[in-house]
Amino acid sequence: MVNLELYKVFYTVARCGSLTKAAQELYISQPAVSQSVKQLETQLGVPLFNRTHKGMELSAAGGKLIFKNVQDALVLLESAENSITELQTTVTGTIRIGATDSIFSHLLSDKIAKFSEKYPAVKFELISATSPETLNQLKEGVCDVAFVNLPVEDADVKFLDTVSHLSDIFVAGKKYEYLKGEEIGLNNLQEFPLLMMERNTVAINSLNAFLALHGVTLTPDIEVSNWDLMVRLAVKGMGLGCIPREYCVEELANGQLFEVAVTPSLPVRGVGIAIPKHASASFTVKQFIAEFSRV
Q: Is residue 248 classed as helix, strand or coil in its secondary structure?
């Protein structure tokens, strides 16, 4: 197949009608332009130009036959290149985000709303699942970016940054107000009804790992599948709930819940951003991710 650059030189010479003008436009030497034209003529087997004292004229049996097709092809290629450039420099398209319901509600909703207001052409597809499931969806190409509870390990994805900290605490409603001001050891928590996240979640695995370091095992009286349900049950006095402080700020502020002083205090966790390890994020996704590093 003929080198595309030879057709570009041919088209420029035909349009300019001069080797000299074509060389100036292409920023190459005149001999290089002349050589390219001769090379294309050799490969096609026909003369493409008539050399006259006025310059370069398209030959009837060669140049005139292919000029329109070459022009159309170059226009299409330029359009394709412009489309790629626009894709790489314009915030548009769809962002598919994977996260848990709680991360969407408490950490992402405001960011998504502000980004949508800033870039109204962008659409969002929100894919809710547990953090382990979200990582699997990220690897399978179901979502473009994932926001997951930490700590979690997966060598097949790329973790970019921690975007928020989660401070796990025990909370209780008015039924347990007598515990205010009291310090409760980890090994004494089992004396009370306990509300915890369901098994095989990052939250409960992290808690159990910490408890194991202190030789403590806690068995929940009620396992819940989401933090909002835990908050409602704790407010109703169903027991002491273990929940990130960031997920019950309103209830702590209005007195529906209070923090139970536990010693030692639970470790701080986080929420991190993950992207596919071997796929390049679109310009739009990169711009959305960048919002989490801006003050």
A: coil
3-state class (DSSP) for residue 222: strand
Cβ 231 vs Cβ 266: under 8 Å: no
Structural element, H or E, at residue 106:
none
- Lookup result for tokens 């005149």: 30
Identify the burial level of 157 via C-beta atoms within 10 angstroms of its C-beta, where 0-12 means exposed, 13-18 middle and 19 or more buried.
buried
pLDDT for the residue 295:
35
> Tens of pLDDT along 79-110?
777 666 655 556 778 999 999 999 999 999 99
CA distance 224 to 6: 68
Query: Residue 159, exposed/middle/buried by CB under 10 A (0-12, 13-18, 19+)?
Result: middle
Q: Which residues does 187 contact at the CB level (< 8 Å), separation at least 6?
A: 214, 215, 216
CB contact at 8 A, 192 and 240: yes
Reported in sequence order, the residue ranges of the chain that DSSP labels E, i.e. its strands, are: 49-52, 55-58, 93-99, 122-128, 145-150, 157-172, 183-185, 194-197, 222-224, 240-244, 258-263, 268-276
Query: Does the predicted TM-score (pTM) go above 0.85?
Result: no
Query: Would you give the DSSP letter of residue 191?
Result: G
